[in-house]
Amino acid sequence: MSQISRRALVRDGGAVSALAATLLSGRGAAAQGRASPAGAPKLLRLSANENPYGPSESAIKAMTSAMADGWMYSGEMGPLARLIAEREGVPVDHVLITEGSAEALRIAALIYAGAGSEMVTASPTFEQCPDYAETCGGTVHTVSLDKDMKHDLAAMEARITGRTGLVYVCNPNNPTATMVDAKALRGFVDTVSDRAMVLVDEAYIDLIDDPAGNTMLDRVKAGRNVIIARTFSKIHGMAGLRVGFTIARPDIIKRMGGLRMSVPNHMGLVAAAASYQDTAFMAHSRKMIRDAMTQTFKVLDDLGIAHVKSQTNFLMFDTGKPIREFMTAMRARGVAVGRPFPPYDTWSRVSMGKAEQMPVFFDALRAHFKKA
Questions:
Q1: Which of 109, 112, 283, 332 could form a disulfide with 165 if both were Cys (CB 3.0 to 4.6 A apart)?
Q2: DSSP-derived 3-state class of residue 185
Q3: Please, what are the domains in the chain?
Q4: Alpha carbon separation from 116 to 56, 106, 110, 113, 137 (Å, rounded)
Q5: Tell me: the pLDDT tens digits for 288-347?
Q6: Rounded to the nearest 10 degrees, how much is the dihedral formed by the CA atoms of 284, 77, 128, 47?
Q7: Phi and psi dihedrals of 140, rounded to 5?
Q8: CA-CA distance, 140 to 354, in Å (whole number)?
Q9: How much is the pTM?
Q10: Closest CA to 99 of 229, 6, 204
Q11: CB atoms < 10 A from the CB of 27, how many?
């Protein structure tokens, strides 16, 4: 990239837009994975459940236009909150904007599962919430997934005690990509929310076939002790911009908002507002990810590799060997895959890349298992 001086930036507004477009487009080496040392081959990054198709062009345009306002402190979360409230059919006081959904998970852990309290969660699952509960002095009780790698709701309910302050359900679940039946989950929420707060992490809900039929938003509207956490990191492809939101009763939102530790940056907020209205991008993103998933299923089936069906942007499959050995072998072939998730010590989690990237993974997979 040619050098642009600070004086040129001040003198030429067009230079600002050009630089912004270059930095925000993600079309360079970083879009393929982490930047590699000079002369080193690029590593295909399929390890972090990211969406390589984002941010959308509308989000990039919004950020480019907003660069000149970078001198201002962030804080205008109202417009985004109103957009979300309108689409989800709730009053705006039911919505809390956070710096990624991970912040909402941490706040919930602090309030409901901190010192003197307990949390019940599946294992393995997304660790932000249970890890932070332990950091805050709480006790976390984990319940193994069932034989289909899904949440064992009956076992989770049985683990709740009078000290349980929070029950965490990631649905679809990360890392297994499995989903709990919506009817069963609603029954679970209705029963359990009388005894503890239920936090349903819906980070991947927009990627599935029937988001409206599987969200627990209706339980929020019914006034239950339920918190819904969502993010702009997945279908919107904005993981690096750190914007998320929570939907819950106003009293819950007020309590959580009082413990918010930071606010999203200005670029993230304007990008999120633009992307949230860009339903065409969301549909395209979902289609491209699903196409890559279908191709991946076929390759795994052809190789006779056991795997879990997924409607998210990642899946798990059984490598038949210690996962760190497989990670090393894939990295040697230019592909980064997910880390270990005990007790599934031979299972690999892989994220979907762009259509033109997936053959690199398929070739590495075929070569590995042919050699094995």
A1: 112
A2: helix
A3: 12-57+280-371 (3.90.1150.10), 64-277 (3.40.640.10)
A4: 44, 16, 11, 8, 7
A5: 999 999 999 999 999 999 999 999 999 999 999 999 999 999 999 999 999 999 999 999
A6: 30
A7: -110, 125
A8: 37
A9: 0.89
A10: 229
A11: 10
